[in-house]
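Why does residue order matter? Because the sequence determines the fold. Keep that principle in mind as you read this record.
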Amino acid sequence: MSRAQLSHCLLAFAIASALPAATIAQDVTVTPPPGGGFKVQGGNLTVSGLPGAVQQANPLCYDPGTGVIGPCTPGSSVAHAGPTGATGATGATGAMGATGAGGTGSLGPTGPTGPAGVTGSGGATGPTGATGAGSTVVGPAGATGPTGATGSTGPDWKTLIIATAEPSGANCKFGGQKIQVGLDNGDGGGSASDGVLQAGEVDSTAYICNPAKRVFVTATLLAGAFNTNHNKADNTCQTEADGAHLGGSYLAWFSSSPTTSSPTTRFTRPTVGYVLVDGTVVATSWKDLTNGGLRHAINETAAGATVTGAVWTGTNTDGTPEATESCNGTGQWFTGAGAGRTGVAGDSSSAAAAWTDNAGQTCNTQLPIYCFEQ
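Structure:
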């Protein structure tokens, strides 16, 4: 049989939790278990026949001063603790609670900059970049250096110049002069200081070519009624040449009398050739001009415009008057010629004999004329 001993009137476990907060001792009824009993002795209540039990969480105590059984207070008697009972089975794990809201703390202040690390080793040198555009700025000129010492006097070689005639050809289309210059120093196997410019002594060569005479057909149109001295036709030629800034003196290719007025009697007869204002060769000389045909038609004005068609001439291919057809029937071209008469005209699109003697035109027809530089 187990026994629980209570200090200062500890009640049995069977009635400990059922008693009110304050109980008078005379109202307590103690019923021992079957086969057991109880005894009060020396302030101690001994109950026999009770099984062992764990100590209650809220034991009751007897106060000997008042005789009251109630909650234990300081000075009241508490039973000695019984032996620890066996550990009960672990209860089931409770459900996991909900995750709490995550809070974000404020950003703390930036810490001080740490000391600089050790400089690493240098990498490999990269390839050379493309060369940039050169500067166009010219720097200031440097100071002039001191004058050098005077050199020794060289040999007294004279400069020689010779001029010789240059025939018509690749160097001069219509001939000219060849000018050669060099020192009389004996170069090329010659004799020095002999006063003769020999082939080996020539240092430079230049050419002064004969200028060609320019020809053109007028842009101005005239009726075939000229006065006998050609003033109107000649003045027209000179006016157009001056307007194109050609320079030089110009006469009309025109005949009005069998003996006194024609290109053969009025024109100079140069040894150079005739060209259009763009340089195209018409004839290489007076002789070449009057031998029946041209090397190129005279179809360009003083301003460079092209003109093709009939041109007043009254002249044969050799530069003499064409007397069979004139505006008065007697070889004369004069003011007042009527529409019933005709005069000889050439064709500016032709390089054959028709350039000057092609067909008759009525005298009141407006046509251009040829002009030749003298």
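The radius of gyration is 74 Å.
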